[in-house]
Amino acid sequence: MLVVQKYGGTSVGDLDRIRNVARRIARYRDEGHDVVVVVSAMAGETDRLLKLAYNLVEEPSPRELDMLVSTGEQVSSALLAMALNAMGYSAKALLAFQIPIKTDELFGKARIRDVATARLKEEIANGNILIIAGFQGITDSGDITTLGRGGSDTTAVAIAAALGADVCEIFTDVDGVYTADPRIVPKARKIEKISYEEMLELASMGAKVLEIRSVEFAKIYGVPVHVRSSFTDEPGTMVVEEDESMEKVLVSGVAYNRNEARISLYGVPDRPGLAAKIFGTIADAGIVVDMIIQTGRPDGRADMTFTVPKTDYKATLKLVDKLAPELSIEKIEGDEDIAKVSIVGAGMRAHPGVAAKMFQVLADHGINIHMISTSEIKVSCVIDEKYTELAVRALHEAFGLDRAPEEETL
Ligand code: ADP
Ligand code: ASP
Ligand code: MG
């Protein structure tokens, strides 16, 4: 079997844990499997590096920032390979440029374009355990990029897809995907099996247990993903194609995201092409807009509200401020203290009334809804950030997620 394993920051957080991970990898090897490992930086390291840069200058240049933050994974991959070598296993650490893992040039949020497999296959054939630095890539012109926070998941799944691995195991500090973040919902339950589509929605709605692009890759290439704990041998959660049992579950999980900010443009002239101009300008800056609401007004103008990642908030405000005179936008306003709470479930397709129930639950707790968006299997509401925990716990309980799945009712 060819197994790709990814170990997150906590799992390689200190030398004892690195030894522990090395022993687990060795065990797979002893069982006769080929193992390719992807590691994150040691816990806290990426934050520490980012802080260094931002304490030095207000707006670090993106290229140099990636040079800096990509180093965390170089350290952990080298240490893990050393630990294995010392145990008598032949292991080799590899950085993205040595493979290479090619990306586009969007520093800080680069997208993987191609994973070359020649060297990987050769090293595996030579009996080496490969320890690959996650989170990083290389552009055609040889510059180092990073994939965005949590990006080692994406490295792992992309490598599993490229190599046609039998499974991609994501080892983390929880023992699977839960019905909600167990850190804020103590009653959350572990989900045994979840569809790519539901996982995609949960991840894009903020459940950071898997980075969203890793789920996209898994879905496109049909890579079975197993999310599990690096501290136990218990099976975790399988992320796989949807099957009939999943359709029956109305709501599978609740997610929240506190990393977005809202921007409102008031009195935008109601003319064809204006939305294209505004959102085209924002997209050209590499900023991903999430929710968008446009409402017409009796005076022939429109109000537009949308959300962007908090890290892009100031840059987006600058862009729209610059556009305002030319487009004769009346007023621009924004709010960083928002959160998005979402419920996700394949069963929603067949059941009306789920959204209404969500709004009622929030209303019963005195929580005002600022924005709403829906997809076939998801409903999201933007609320004041201070109500995040309350909303997530209330929804978790109201949709019966505190109990076993059979008992769920609308
Ligand atoms: P790693 O460093 O291993 O990549 P992360 O911190 O990125 O780990 O992801 C694991 C964390 O994701 C958990 O500690 C948990 O708090 C959080 N999380 C959020 N939503 C969920 C969920 N639905 N199920 C499990 N964990 C979740
Ligand atoms: N080290 C990077 C981060 O902290 C990537 C990852 O851990 O997946 O975001
Ligand atoms: Mg992560």
TrEMBL record:
* Alphabetical GO biological process terms: homoserine biosynthetic process; lysine biosynthetic process via diaminopimelate; threonine biosynthetic process
Q: Show where the ACT domain sits.
A: 263-337, 343-410
Question: Which positions does UniProt annotate for ATP binding?
Answer: 6-9, 172-173, 178, 183, 208-209
Q: In which pathway does it act?
A: Amino-acid biosynthesis; L-lysine biosynthesis via DAP pathway; (S)-tetrahydrodipicolinate from L-aspartate: step 1/4; Amino-acid biosynthesis; L-methionine biosynthesis via de novo pathway; L-homoserine from L-aspartate: step 1/3; Amino-acid biosynthesis; L-threonine biosynthesis; L-threonine from L-aspartate: step 1/5
Give the reaction(s) catalysed: L-aspartate + ATP = 4-phospho-L-aspartate + ADP
Give the residues the record marks as binding substrate. 46, 73
Matching entries from InterPro entries are given as:
AceGlu_kinase-like_sf (IPR036393), ACT-like_dom_sf (IPR045865), ACT_Aspartokinase (IPR054352), ACT_dom (IPR002912), AKii-LysC-BS (IPR041740), Asp/Glu/Uridylate_kinase (IPR001048), Asp_kin_monofn (IPR005260), Asp_kinase (IPR001341)
- Keyword terms of this UniProt record: Amino-acid biosynthesis, ATP-binding, Kinase, Lysine biosynthesis, Nucleotide-binding, Transferase
Which is one Gene Ontology cellular component term of this protein? cytosol
Molecular function GO terms recorded: aspartate kinase activity; ATP binding
At the top level of its lineage, which domain of life is listed?
Bacteria
Keyword Nucleotide-binding appears in the UniProt entry: yes
Q: Name the enzyme's class.
A: transferase
What is the E.C. number? 2.7.2.4
Instruction: Name the family.
Output: Belongs to the aspartokinase family.
- NCBIfam families the record matches: asp_kin_monofn, asp_kinases, PRK06635.1-2, PRK06635.1-4
Full protein name: Aspartokinase
Q: Which organism is it from?
A: Thermodesulfatator indicus (strain DSM 15286 / JCM 11887 / CIR29812)
